[in-house]
Amino acid sequence: MANDPANSIKVLSIDGGGIRGIIPAIILDAIQQRLGKEAWQSFDLIAGTSTGGIITVGIGTACNDGKPYSPQQLVDLYVQNGASIFKKSIFTPAKELARPKYSPAGLETVLAKFFRDAEFKSAFTPLLVSSYDLQSQIPFFFKSHKIHISDDYNWWVRDIARATSAAPTYFPPFHLARGNQDYALVDGGVYVNNPSMAAYIEARKLYPSAARVIVVSVGTGNRQDRIQYADAKDWGLLGWAKQIVPVLMDSVSEAVDYELKYLPECTYYRLQVENLPQEAADMDNVTPENIANLQTIAKNYVATRSGDLDKICADLKSGRGSDMPGIGRKPN
């Protein structure tokens, strides 16, 4: 019975990608509609990086008047607030040469409005959200399932969302401090833009007796852009500064894909839009045309992958494989 989905641990992983978070939110809405229940009822662990981290806490905590947000409500978050988060001006191109491209004010205002005073301890299922601490220069994971051990692991959800989405060159680091805890946090995408492997390892630690782990990994689109040798051969600091973030994020995501596909005792489903058009690839392209285009791309993907989604949902239909006391709660 090792391959029986009912006896398997289910993991959801959501990539980073800025405004392209519209894509995984629409894919997750399709999955939720098929299952007829919320994500926290289907997954034993939900993990996210950057925009995927925002989605993770959105669907996994009591941040919506005691309930989680639906994936469609998260789509609405991006559609309605994308231009406020990535607020451009005529000075933006010159500013990004010496400072972060965007002020964090717009992002922080949206997160405060959206998550209000929700705490991480309100998680309905174990959540894993990635960031990176510049001060210690080590990965930093927010883990809701650690809160029953110590309140030191509990934070405001809005602060977690801000920390995981502090993409270098786009936003300044987030200073998270409390008592003796002091961190300078940036986007976890610098090392786990696809957090599926980290989520798999965490699930194995949480549920050591699990015979199998089912990982559903949802991406934000595989970019089409190609960097030619002739373009890159003379790059210095300035040339690389504009490209290093997407290069890092794409490469670490693809490495995780390769590793999990061949991992024993793991069923790995990767839901990723291939060949994302160049005009849709930029994580901060918040023009009305691109926001509409991202929604169309995601809906078309759902339509063309309907059979695959049905197969995934068949494995998820039995719900969570394990209920751990003290690390999840029920909605009001």
Topology summary:
Blueprint: E1 9-14, H1 22-35, H2 39-42, E2 45-49, H3 51-60, H4 71-85, H5 92-95, H6 105-115, E3 127-133, E4 138-143, H7 157-164, E5 174-178, E6 181-187, H8 189-192, H9 196-206, E7 213-218, H10 229-232, H11 237-241, H12 244-261, E8 266-271, H13 278-281, H14 288-304, H15 306-316
Parallel strand pairs: 1-2, 1-7, 2-3, 7-8
Antiparallel strand pairs: 3-4, 3-6, 5-6
Helix pairs in contact: 1-4, 1-14, 1-15, 3-7, 4-6, 6-7
Structural overview:
The protein has 332 residues and is of the alpha/beta class. The chain contains 15 helices and eight strands. Helix 1 packs parallel to helix 14. The longest helix has 18 residues, at 244-261.
* Mean pLDDT over the residues: 90
Number of helical segments with 4 or more residues: 15
Alpha-carbon distance between the two ends? 36 Å
Q: Which secondary-structure class do the elements indicate?
A: alpha/beta
The amount of beta strand, in percent, is: 5-15%
Largest sheet: 8 strands, mixed
| Multimerization status | single chain
Can you tell me the residue ranges where pLDDT is under 50 for at least 5 consecutive residues?
A: none
The percent of residues in helical segments reads 40-55%
* Element-level helix/strand string: EHHEHHHHEEHEEHHEHHHEHHH
**From the alpha-carbon coordinates, what is the Rg to the nearest angstrom?**
19 Å
- Name the shape in a single word: globular
Strand segment count: 8
